[in-house]
Amino acid sequence: MAHHPPSSTRTIPDISNVPRHIAVIMDGNGRWAKQRFMPRVMGHQRGVEALRDVVKSCRELGVQYLTVFAFSSENWRRPDEEVSFLMSLFLKMLEREVTKLHQNNIRLKIIGDRSRFDEKLRQSMQEAEQLTSNNTALTLTIAANYGGRWDVMNAVQNLLKDHPHLAQTFGEEDLQPYLSMSDAPEPDLFIRTGGEQRISNFMLWQLAYTELYFTDTLWPAFDRSELNKAIASYQRRERRFGRTSEQLQVQPEGGQGA
Ligand code: IPE
Ligand code: IPE
Ligand code: MG
What we know:
- With 258 residues, this protein is an alpha/beta fold.
- It has helices at 29-35, 40-61, 80-103, 119-132, 148-162, 172-175, 224-235, 245-250, and strands at 21-25, 65-72, 106-111, 138-146, 189-192, 211-214.
- The chain is built from eight helices and six strands; from the N terminus they run βααβαβαβααββαα.
- One 3-methylbut-3-enyl trihydrogen diphosphate (IPE) is lined by residues 26-31, 71, 75, 86, 194.
- The site of magnesium ion has 2 residues, from loops.
């Protein structure tokens, strides 16, 4: 069986100064464009550029996993033109950027329910994942048609399909391998741009003990210095995982213990 990183509710994870895993809700594209009297979709286009910079910065800083919310399972509710613009942007991005990601030793993964995407997009996703699958500098995961509830429900269904006899007795450790992000440590730092302070059905399960950071900066304007601010905020936090502050002073590394 594959090795899975420890669950924060079962074992206290090791923590490091630079977050190993950053999860981002890239919000505020539409408002960024509106402020400039441009159509909303221009904000999405600029959002891709912001993502490119953040990927580069994360790689340089030694962040191992970057997971970004690109399209939620609820974003289908948007006007048709905006949804189809986002789909074609996604396809273009895959076609144009994957070679660069590969050259930079970045592994690309996509999570979410792909069944609603058209065949061409699904094909591109699979090719991009395949090409970059052995890269080791950074894992970039794009959440597309993703929802936190979908993830948990999907995991339960697949677990029970494989192991029907576990229906009454399964535990976290049985479910873990079926969740989308099962190979990655849980996010250390969550960033939401665009001023809203909510999770919007992002990684509900995995954010259990993640440090949350909210900024008013709109996503297209989120750059290296904004990322540094978020990381600096993270570095000032005391991650207790249920313990007392006094216990941490005795054992500052967190280290072992359930
Ligand atoms: C986030 O920006 C990108 C997607 C949800 C695809 P928005 O498009 O939500 O921008 P605002 O929140 O309307 O400004
Ligand atoms: C969350 O942003 C989803 C993505 C950034 C892809 P939304 O703009 O869809 O979130 P709400 O609707 O304001 O909660
Ligand atoms: Mg929004």
